[in-house]
Every structure is written in structure tokens, then in C-alpha cells.
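pinned: reference chain
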Amino acid sequence: MHTIGTRTVLASIAVFSALSTLACGRKDAPSEGAPAASSSAAPANTHVTLALNWVPEPEFGGFYAARESGAYAKNGLDVAVRGGSADVPVVQMVATGRVEFATVGGDELVIAQARGADVVAVFATFQTSPQCIMVHAERHLTKIEDVFQSGTVALETGLSFTKFLKTKFKWGAATVVPYDGGIAHFLIDPNFAQQGYATSEPIAAKRAGQNPQVFLVSDAGFNPYDTVVVTGRKFAEKNPDLVRKFVLATRAGWRSYLDDPAPTNAVLGKLNKTMDAGTFSAIAEAQKPFIETPETKTLGLGGMTAERWKALSQTLLDLSLVPSAPNPATLFIAPPP
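pinned: its C-alpha cells
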């Protein structure tokens, strides 16, 4: 199951220079599950690649829906959607021009820009971060800070959200251990808590017969945009119409997926066989309120504001994760209306 903690931001930045050297002369892998090329003599659509920072899951459903429904093609685009993993440095792939688009966490974008990667956000899928701490409901904890007063908590302590929690709340008698990426220990230890995504690990725990309780990190005050599509600033400046069409088609894909995820889930299920159909369906339903919020009614799906980026940048500055807070205007391009 995916969690933001598996994407180690600071470590990935270190490979920037190496990737700059490798950027030329390497061919992209074919798109997962992409339709066969047409034999029609019609002009070819413009080919671009969207590199995901995790494996194909409902978190990315709208991108696959845009491809499968023809939304990208209708906008003159041939989009290769490439699944990733925790080790794929997608920010650097965009910054070096190896791919045109990629998905990242909002905090990752701010940190990357502060370290010299000239990338910019064009679409923010998750308006509310699903990052959470999952505990057993039988412990009867009432707030997120209670998690750190007893039992065991599995966290990646070097990440932005865990640094935020440690700074904001006094960590008491709880034993903090490294997060291993799964829920196996949670299933057997009633005093075990762990990081996760509210749209992922709790669902897996429920399907395994447990009764998880979720504390959202966003409720504690750390709420970055997530599954943010980024592109290179120079690429965006040279290709504004292409970027605009990509965003409009992506928005249409997410609208389609939110309304009816079943057709796209069938495609995702062929690409990711670690989940069954029921899990795909449950995640797609659980993530809806994190993607479509009161703000998106005004901004549209994927919309962003300078105020949100400014607040995130200031938090990362306060945590000493960036040397200075970037100008919010440099972090995103407002999606078309």
C-alpha cells in the first residue's frame, strides 16, 4: 500500500546531478496498458510522458481515466502513464527533461525548488492530504498527540510531516520505530500505531478484520497538496498550450473517475495485481472527499492557491527543511478555468 512516507524527499534530491548527465540518449519505457497505435493516417498526437511516483493505484485513477476515455487524445496528446516506485526520482526526471510531467508531494516540490530544481506544479489532485497516523480504536485515543504517549509508533522520522508532528507535539513515552511500509505488525499488536494514508492502510486493516482509527495529519495543521503534477518551468514556458490541454484533459479524467471508477479500476487491476477489485473500489470511494472539496467548486479539480503554497513553504522553513521560503508564484501555474 502506498504512503507518502515511502517517498524519501531529501535522499532523492541528491541524485539530481547524476540524472542531469543521464538525461540525454535514454528512451522512455512504453506506457503501461497503453492502447495500440492507430494505423490511421491522421496527424499523430503530441507524445508526452507522465511519470508516477508510485505503482498504479486509485490515487492515480484520473490520469488513467483521461487516457482510457480518450480525453488526452481529444486534446491532441498521446500520454504515456508510467508507474513508479519509492526509488524513482521523478522530480529530477522532470527537471532534467527526461519526462515532461510527474507526480510528487507538495512538500517535495518546495524542497526541490529550494535546492535548485526549476519545476512547477500544474495540477494538485489531493486538496486535503490523506497522510495519517493509524491506531487501534480499542485504545480509545481522542487526539493525534495521544499516539505519542504510549505504545509503539512506526514512522519515517526524517520526513516533513513527522518532523512537524515532533515539533508541534511533545513525544512522550511511546517507542518510535522505523516504518517498514506494510501493516503486518499493526495486525498483531493492539498497541502498535503507524503512519499511512487514510485512503489505503486503514482499508487494508479493515479488510483484515481490524478496527483502525485514523488521525489526519492535516487536522494537526500540516496539509500539503498531494499527488501534484509538476513540469519543468522552461517546458511550460515553451509549451503553454500543451500544458493547458494536459491540465484540462486531466481534469476531465478525474471527473470521469470520481463519477464512475469501475472501468478504470479494471485497467488498474491488470497493472497492479497486489490488490483485488474490492480494495480498488473501496479506495476510490474513500479518496473522493480528499480530492473534491469546497475549494474545487471554485477552483476546479486540481486547483491551487498562492495562500496554500505560502503556508506550506513557511512551515517547511520553520522546520529548517528549506533555507528560505520560495515565492508562492514560482511554485505553481494556476490551472485554466
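why pinned: The chain has two domains: 4-128+224-330, 131-220. The beta strands are 46-51, 77-82, 101-104, 119-126, 131-136, 152-155, 175-178, 192-197, 212-216, 226-232.
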